[in-house]
């Protein structure tokens, strides 16, 4: 443990002597928060440092959100293929793409939470029924209610209300009972 702390202190001194830690990133994350955390690694607790992102139009974020628009912008700027792109429009477009992804991911999580609430409600009902069954009190009554409910469903499915006798599915009723 002491050896690790000594190594970290030595590396920190070396980084500070070189002007601070320089973090190079090869792609932008879907979340701006992750990018900001990565940037923050370069200048921890007031230490000097810098960060730089190198991107490609083939990166997932660029490809999914905005690659075609970027191509149009690059042509307007007169940039050639394999040429470095440094322009405020690019940063704005990237930020917009990240915001879109973050909003989409938020909606997905929100939707999943709704389904989780439904599952949780069902789980509560099942556990309540389980406790009732394990208590044993009113067990025969509970089973009779369940049986009656199942029979009602089978009859309703095979002999619809207000149906004539020739419309009944007697074979289906016999098979299910």
Question: What features would you describe in this structure?
Answer:
It is a single chain. By secondary structure, the protein is mostly helical. It folds into two domains: 2-106, P-loop containing nucleotide triphosphate hydrolases (Rossmann fold, 3-Layer(aba) Sandwich), CATH 3.40.50; 138-177. The protein contains seven helices and two strands; from the N terminus they run αβαβααααα. Strands 1-2 form a two-stranded parallel sheet.
Quick recap:
With 177 residues, the chain is mainly alpha-helical. It is built from 7 helices and 2 strands.
Averaged pLDDT, please? Answer: 84
Number of domains: 2
CATH hierarchy: architecture of the largest domain: 3-Layer(aba) Sandwich
Strand content: 5-15%
Largest beta sheet: strand ordering: 1-2
Major sheet details: 2 strands, parallel
Any idea of the CATH topology of the largest domain? Rossmann fold
Give the key terms:
177 residues; two-stranded parallel ribbon; elongated; 7 helices; 2 domains; 2 strands; mainly alpha; Rossmann fold
What layout of secondary structure does this protein have?
Layout: H1 2-17, E1 21-25, H2 32-41, E2 49-53, H3 60-64, H4 67-77, H5 88-135, H6 139-158, H7 170-176
Parallel strand pairs: 1-2
Helix pairs in contact: 6-7
């Amino acid at each position: 443990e002491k050896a690790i702390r000594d190594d970290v202190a030595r590396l920190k001194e070396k980084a500070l002597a070189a002007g601070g830690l320089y973090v190079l990133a090869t792609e932008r994350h879907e979340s701006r928060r992750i990018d900001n955390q990565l940037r923050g690694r370069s200048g921890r607790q007031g230490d000097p440092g810098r960060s730089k992102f190198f991107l490609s139009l083939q990166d997932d974020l660029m490809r999914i959100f905005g690659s075609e628009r970027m191509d149009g912008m690059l042509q307007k700027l007169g940039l050639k293929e394999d040429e470095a792109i440094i322009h405020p429009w690019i940063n704005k477009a990237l930020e917009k793409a990240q915001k879109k992804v973050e909003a989409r991911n938020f909606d997905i999580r929100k939707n999943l939470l709704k389904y989780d609430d439904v599952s949780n409600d069902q789980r509560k009902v099942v556990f309540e029924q389980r406790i009732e069954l394990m208590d044993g009190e009113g067990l025969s009554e509970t089973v009779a209610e369940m049986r009656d409910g199942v029979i009602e469903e089978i009859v309703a499915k095979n002999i619809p209300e207000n149906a004539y006798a020739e419309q009944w599915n007697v074979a289906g009723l016999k098979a299910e009972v």
